[in-house]
Specification:
Elements lengths: L2 H12 L11 H10 L5 H14 L3 H6 L2 H8 L6 H16 L8 H4 L7 H12 L8 H11 L8 H14 L5 H14 L18 H4 L16 E11 L4 E3 L1 E2 L10 E2 L2 E4 L5 H6 L2 H5 L5 E5 L5 E4 L3 E12 L7 E3 L10 H9 L6
Parallel strand pairs: 1-8
Antiparallel strand pairs: 1-5, 2-9, 3-4, 6-8, 7-8
């Protein structure tokens, strides 16, 4: 029995029951694939269900405000995915008259869609024999064939795509693609794979050569940098709070936050006062401030670690601008770092 047939047979017996596997609607399949980019199924499933309930059609998603979309996405991270999802929904709804692109090449033209996502949608929704290559697929192929080419190198990306395309079952591309991804997620796991009961064990080079823990090979990641954040949680006498929308092209673009001052190290109260935050945030307004957390709250992103302090600023007058009612703060989309603080802090104590 060949590689692809073995995988499809395994998949038929072991696949998880997931809502996006019970439909051929390309909108739902696209939605699931965008949510599951860099997100595990157990984390992404509640978000998928929430999006389907809130936006049952691509027109519903297109007509929503970006703020609504970002708020529903809150907690998933990589917020550019949500912004691209929303932009593509508008394109499909208004430019393509609600007609989802039907080929790999056309799907790949959607904002935020690369080779993997286009391959998944084209094969699952439209039965196009375009092989997927994600982290699970890299792992299965590198171990089974004993390939030590770095999967995040230009050479490796090309080689694994070529191999995957050669192996795909052209009569059952949807089943094959889902099978190899599921196999990597459940059977050929990153750590402690189930080799003793693996249907592919007889042909697995990594198992025969005792290289399971050495494959796949990845080039070293970019060095993680540290940043030091100081958030000013400014609340006035009328229970308004300073809240501003992040601008620019950063990862938290268009999410809301408290006024932020970055520093080159973690600050104590005296050092913080020397920053002159009064002139930068509050001008000619009387206030008192206290440090909420002595130890930095460390928020880890893929490329940087944010060492954060929250400074509670009690304003003696009504805030002049950029204010929102404290009771409405949970209506705004915020980064997880801010959301966790809002949930933790007792604003009633101010």
């Amino acid at each position: 029995m060949d590689f692809s047939t073995e995988l499809i047979n395994w998949y038929s017996a072991n696949k998880r029951k997931l809502p996006w596997r019970e439909t051929k609607n390309p909108y739902f399949i696209w939605l699931s694939e965008i949510i599951l980019q860099q997100t595990q199924v157990k984390q992404g499933l509640p978000y998928y269900n929430a999006f389907v309930k809130e936006f049952p059609t691509v027109f519903d998603l297109a007509e929503a405000s970006e703020e609504t979309v970002l708020k529903l996405w809150q907690g998933l991270g990589y917020y550019s995915r949500a912004r691209n999802l929303h932009a593509s929904a508008k394109h499909i709804a208004y430019t393509l008259n609600g007609e989802f692109p039907k080929t790999y090449e056309d799907i790949k033209k959607l904002k935020g869609v690369g080779d993997y996502t286009a391959s998944a949608i084209a094969s699952i929704a439209f039965n196009e024999p375009e092989a997927v290559v994600d982290g699970n697929v890299y792992r299965v192929l590198s171990r089974y064939f004993g390939l030590d080419t770095a999967i995040n190198s230009t050479e490796g990306i090309k080689a694994f795509k070529t191999l995957a395309q050669r192996l795909i079952d052209k009569k059952q591309p949807a089943s094959y693609n889902q099978a190899i991804m599921e196999f990597g997620a459940l059977q050929c796991k990153p750590k402690a794979p189930c080799c003793l009961v693996c249907p592919l064990q007889d042909g697995c080079v990594a198992l025969q050569q005792n290289k399971i823990n050495q494959l796949p090979v990845k080039l070293k990641k970019t060095k993680v940098t540290k940043k030091f954040f100081n958030y000013m949680v400014c609340v006035d006498q009328d229970q308004n709070i300073l809240f501003e929308k992040r601008q620019g092209k950063g990862i938290w673009q268009n999410l809301y936050q408290f006024p932020l001052i970055e520093s080159d190290k973690s600050l104590d109260a005296e050092e913080f006062e020397l920053l002159g935050f009064e002139a930068r945030v509050l001008k000619n307004v009387p206030f008192d401030y206290t440090l909420y957390n002595e130890a930095d709250k460390v928020h880890k992103l893929s490329h940087q670690h944010l060492h954060t302090k929250f400074w509670i600023v009690e304003v003696k007058k009504t805030l002049p601008k950029n204010k929102v009612a404290l009771k409405d703060i949970n209506k705004y989309p915020v980064p997880v770092l801010i959301g966790d603080f809002i949930e933790e802090f007792n604003f009633e104590s101010i």
